[in-house]
């Protein structure tokens, strides 16, 4: 009997199946997998005997059913997870790694990984706030993550009304030269937040603002400029105050130009010919014309994730959720609420809006309130 070999001659065994062909007496063979190139088929007149070549697997992995990932050292995996946590664009990017397997979950909660997590890694939305989210933020702050200390401090101070713990977390971030934490503590000192009106400390607020301004914080530069112009908590110096305001605008413009260069868009407009309200030009111009007097339109600065959380937390909430008669800062990118009645300053012209700081007032004036402000009716 003649034996026909496909691919390679080899001694056949009798473990194969039998596949019959058509009624003309010819026989045809079917492989267990048509695309499998490791199959050898021995065709006889009466039967087909498939034989599969064995895959080569190392004995140390074939016994336990593990893979090469288990052989990677922990230090290498932690280094990779540090890179992932520091570049994550949303919490899901990091959470998806933690739920992959037990080993990644354990190494992902390593203190080194949590200390390098970016603000967007724990930028939790207010509607998704839970005890587990609180524990995760606490773990990041305990690991030495400065951004987590500031974010959790803001949430505890304003949302959870745990003033002492929130202020201490922000102070921990401020000690590590976190400019946003320094400015937030300055706002608390200017307003006496969490206490009475007599708890205001203007000199401490100016000192904190000056330190944040030294680190390049734009709102702190603007706040310090207004304090010097008005003599608020510091000896009046109009020329020095104007210098700080110009420096704040310059830093804001530099940041905007950096962003527009990367995106390929432009914000330069002509200030000599104002556009009518509702025009097509106004609709196509995106941003806040902070430097409109100088002929350019700068986009509104992106708010910190902590301010986003505050805005979402208090948006739509009734008075009993944040205190009866307490108001939010009218600047959309702030989100800070009052901790007592009449804590924030009202607009001296219309009295319809209120702000936690002069920096928020200046931003909201150019962004929105300039076109809405109207004098109050006199009695």
From TrEMBL:
Show where the MYND-type domain sits.
Answer: 331-373
> Which InterPro entries does the entry mention?
At2g35280_TPR_dom (IPR057136), At5g50450/At1g67340-like (IPR044508), TPR-like_helical_dom_sf (IPR011990), Znf_MYND (IPR002893)
* Name of the featured protein: MYND-type domain-containing protein
Q: Where is this region: Disordered?
A: 1-24
**Which keywords describe this protein according to UniProt?**
Metal-binding, Zinc, Zinc-finger
> Transmembrane segments in this chain: where?
none
The entry lists its GO molecular-function terms as: zinc ion binding
Name of a matching Pfam family: zf-MYND
What lineage, starting at the top, does this entry show?
Answer: Eukaryota, Viridiplantae, Streptophyta, Embryophyta, Tracheophyta
């Amino acid at each position: 009997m003649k034996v026909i070999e496909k691919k390679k001659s080899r001694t056949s065994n009798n473990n194969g199946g039998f596949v019959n062909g058509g009624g003309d007496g010819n026989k045809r063979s079917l492989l267990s997998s048509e695309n499998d190139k490791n199959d050898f088929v021995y065709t006889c007149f009466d039967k087909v005997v498939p034989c599969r070549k064995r895959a080569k697997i190392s004995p140390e992995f074939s016994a336990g059913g593990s893979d090469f990932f288990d052989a990677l050292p922990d230090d290498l995996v932690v280094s990779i997870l540090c890179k992932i946590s520091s570049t994550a664009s949303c919490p899901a990017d990091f959470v998806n790694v933690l739920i992959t397997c037990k080993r990644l979950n354990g190494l992902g909660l390593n203190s080194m990984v949590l200390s390098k997590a970016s603000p967007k890694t724990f930028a939790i939305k207010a509607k998704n706030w839970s005890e587990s989210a609180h524990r995760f933020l606490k773990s990041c702050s305990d690991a030495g993550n400065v951004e987590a200390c500031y974010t959790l401090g803001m949430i505890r101070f304003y949302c959870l009304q745990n003033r002492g713990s929130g202020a201490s977390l922000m102070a921990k971030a401020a000690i590590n030269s976190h400019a946003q934490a320094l400015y937030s503590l300055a706002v608390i000192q200017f307003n006496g937040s969490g206490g009475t009106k007599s708890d205001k400390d203007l000199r401490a607020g100016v000192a904190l603002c000056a330190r944040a301004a030294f680190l390049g914080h734009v709102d702190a530069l603007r706040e310090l400029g207004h304090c010097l112009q008005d003599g608020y908590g510091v000896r009046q110096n109009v020329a020095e105050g104007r210098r700080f305001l110009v420096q704040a605008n310059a830093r804001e413009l530099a940041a905007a130009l950096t962003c527009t260069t990367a995106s390929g868009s432009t914000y330069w407009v002509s200030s000599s010919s104002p556009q009518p309200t509702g025009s097509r030009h106004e609709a196509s111009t995106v941003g806040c014309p902070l430097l409109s007097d100088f002929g350019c339109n700068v986009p509104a600065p992106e708010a910190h994730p902590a301010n986003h959380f505050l805005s979402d937390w208090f948006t739509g909430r009734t008075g009993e959720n944040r205190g009866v008669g307490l108001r939010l800062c009218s600047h959309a990118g702030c989100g800070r609420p009052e901790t007592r009645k009449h804590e924030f300053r009202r607009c001296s012209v219309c009295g319809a809006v209120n702000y936690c700081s002069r920096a928020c007032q200046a931003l909201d004036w150019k962004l929105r309130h300039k076109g809405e402000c109207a004098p109050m009716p006199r009695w």
